[in-house]
């Protein structure tokens, strides 16, 4: 029996207006795709707005409540699962990484929204009542457009989708919005991009500071100012996250994971993981694969 965590592509789902987007009422989608309740990954962007239901969900091993008025966003590659206590409903949109590409002048436009930054705490948002009503109106218009028999033109859908992102982003932290165009904010985004590309090989803040042409002290200061954590913590957290993602793939031995993450040996990897997570990699694997229904 295959024990890899499933990875789903946008092509695995029935199309809405074209093969690069799916839009549906969440209650229907949830019933049609029961296998998605257990841990899985996507190769596409994904968002859900709940209007009914309760329970919890995990995004990259962080647990969040499920409740009406809550919207969450996910980027490709993240690990996700649902555990509903009562029947959920709402709206779901899946769209491919290049769905908005031809529509936007800036290829990294989505990354300007905090909820597309890959940090789970920024990806789950409880919307104020007035924004909930705006979100529902936009999502209903997107659903309606899917039933339109006129020749397919996704421009209206893309425009509505971007409006939804903008409306939701306005509920984000005011300080973050105020500083988002500053030089230091640009530096921080560059640092985060570098971590994403190099976390397995570069593990020291001074290595990243050198690539950014700034001092390690400056890098550490801007991480603390914007995020309240050190530069070293950001790097370490990304390494641990990847370790967790790899550990729930039962086909990989712990020694192979240590090698993939460029640890000098398995013993050092185990000590590193236990120091920051409080349990061994094997214990983490057992807890999470059991909870997610793997044998």
UniProtKB/TrEMBL annotation:
Matches recorded under InterPro entries: AraC-bd, Homeodomain-like_sf, HTH-like, HTH_AraC, RmlC-like_jellyroll, Tscrpt_reg_AraC-type_HTH
Domain HTH araC/xylS-type as annotated: residue spans: 189-287
GO MF entries: DNA-binding transcription factor activity; sequence-specific DNA binding
Stretches that traverse the bilayer: none
Keywords, comma-separated and alphabetical: DNA-binding, Transcription, Transcription regulation
SMART domains: HTH_ARAC
Keyword Cell cycle found: no
Official protein name in the record: Helix-turn-helix domain-containing protein
């Amino acid at each position: 029996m295959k024990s890899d965590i499933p990875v789903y592509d946008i092509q695995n789902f029935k199309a809405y207006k074209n093969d690069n987007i799916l839009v549906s009422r969440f209650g229907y989608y949830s019933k049609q795709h029961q296998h998605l309740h257990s841990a899985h990954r996507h190769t596409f962007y994904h968002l859900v707005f709940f209007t009914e239901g309760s329970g919890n969900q995990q995004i990259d091993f962080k647990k969040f409540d499920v409740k009406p008025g809550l919207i969450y966003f996910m980027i490709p590659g993240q690990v996700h699962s649902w555990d509903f206590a009562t029947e959920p409903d709402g709206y779901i949109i899946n769209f491919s990484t290049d769905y908005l590409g031809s529509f936007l002048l800036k290829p990294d436009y989505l990354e300007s929204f905090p909820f597309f930054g890959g940090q789970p705490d920024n990806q789950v948002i409880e919307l104020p009542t007035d924004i909930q009503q705006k979100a529902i109106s936009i999502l209903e218009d997107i659903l309606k457009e899917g039933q339109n028999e006129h020749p397919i033109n996704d421009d209206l859908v893309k425009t509505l989708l971007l409006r939804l992102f903008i409306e939701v982003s306005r509920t984000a932290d005011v300080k973050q919005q105020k500083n988002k165009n500053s030089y230091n904010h640009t530096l921080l985004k560059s640092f985060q991009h570098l971590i994403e590309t190099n976390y397995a090989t570069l593990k020291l803040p001074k290595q990243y500071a050198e690539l950014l042409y700034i001092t390690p002290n400056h890098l550490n200061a801007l991480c603390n100012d914007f995020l309240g954590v050190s530069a070293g913590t950001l790097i370490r957290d990304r390494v641990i996250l990847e370790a967790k993602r790899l550990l729930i793939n039962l086909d990989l031995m712990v020694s192979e994971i240590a090698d993939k993450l460029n640890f000098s040996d398995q013993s050092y990897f185990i000590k590193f993981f236990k120091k920051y997570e409080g349990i061994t990699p094997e214990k983490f694997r057992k807890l999470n694969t059991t909870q997610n229904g793997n044998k």
